Amino acid sequence: MQPWSVIDRAQTADARLVVGLMSGMSMDGLDVAVVRITERAGAPERPSVELVAGESTAYDDELKGRMRGALAGTPGDVAALSAELAELWAHDVVELLDRKGIDRGDVLAIGAHGQTVHHTPRADGAPAITLQVGDAARLAAGTGLPVVADFRQADIAAGGEGAPLIPLADWILFGEPDEVTACQNLGNIANVTVLPPTTDEILAFDTGPANALIDAAARSTDEGRAAGGIDKDGALSATGDIDNDLLLALYTKRSAWLAEKPPKSAGFETFGPGLLDEVGDAFTRLGAADRVRTVVEYTALALRDAYAWHVVTRFPELERVRFSGGGCHNRMLMTRIGALLADLGLVVEALDPTWTDLKEAVGFALLADRTLRGLPGNVPSATGAAHPVVLGAVTPPPR
Ligand SMILES: Nc1ncnc2c1ncn2[C@@H]1O[C@H](COP(=O)(O)OP(=O)(O)OP(=O)(O)O)[C@@H](O)[C@H]1O
Ligand SMILES: [Mg+2]
Asked: Is there an atom of ligand 1 within 6 Å of 324 CB?
């Protein structure tokens, strides 16, 4: 395929079928979304988006182990992981399209976020540094489809953090013409996009931990590991009690980060297992359920603080927050977040369940479509970039 034929097709077709792939920081699995994007007369920035098919596939424990190993490994380990993931993703995409009876010839392209193996936020004038793997050429060869990947680098080259990139997709999908709303994702880290009617005032930032600390707490005991290394449906935390000493210790360690004004982003170094090591005995002296219950409470309180200090102060008219991401399945977490945000006058809304785990994959399908149409995909007020830029690198399939 000539590289420009995909661009020609993207720019001339009013309805386009695009696949989005997300493999998140939690390294839990691959989310695949197949979306139909249709131009709307009079609203060139806001096409209609239909989720045609989608699926989340969990990685097996061996692969998860190799992924964690690669993060601490050699460049060769990272390269091997990049190849292995791309081949697995290609297999999953082909299998899903075939099973759903979707002809690959009808698909315009794949937008693949990739697996983040490194992300250092911008600091003291030094640019952010980020690396996502999942070899685009192998993914293109394995599916026969053009691939748009490496979305974050262009925003960084324009002076931004390279993150968050979902805000524009949130605005296209959920923005209201005459209301301020918000989208809150609970992945590894928690992040919010506040959506005013126009894109230039979008506020988006990482609010704190989502599942990062909960997973680390669940993985810290045999009981938690036997339960799958997560607080599945909130079942483990439901049997535990809050330990005030641990809660205070966690709060004290990261109070400066929580108070910091946005834009800001967090990673493993801020809210990963290292934080539990830092609080030491306050954590390790507790049993499995109390550990997880207390960390769930801290996670909900950190989210409440972010809204109290940085969101409702700036957008007092905000009423509705739409939640997505794996954390929505944790009943204890959602109950506590619902109660704490209600105190701020905010209503928690769940997305349609078929969207909960797929919103970010849908987002990267939308961003790939914009790239192929020559439209910018970043929101400078969210990433700190000097200006809007077209994101990503396009890899055509071999034939
Ligand atoms: N049934 C469940 N009960 C409780 N927690 C769940 C359940 N299913 C998933 N989770 C949590 O959700 C996490 C994965 O969430 P998600 O896929 O949204 O995040 P992610 O892959 O890290 O993405 P991102 O990079 O956007 O943060 C898991 O690590 C787990 O903690
Ligand atoms: Mg995930």
From this structure: no
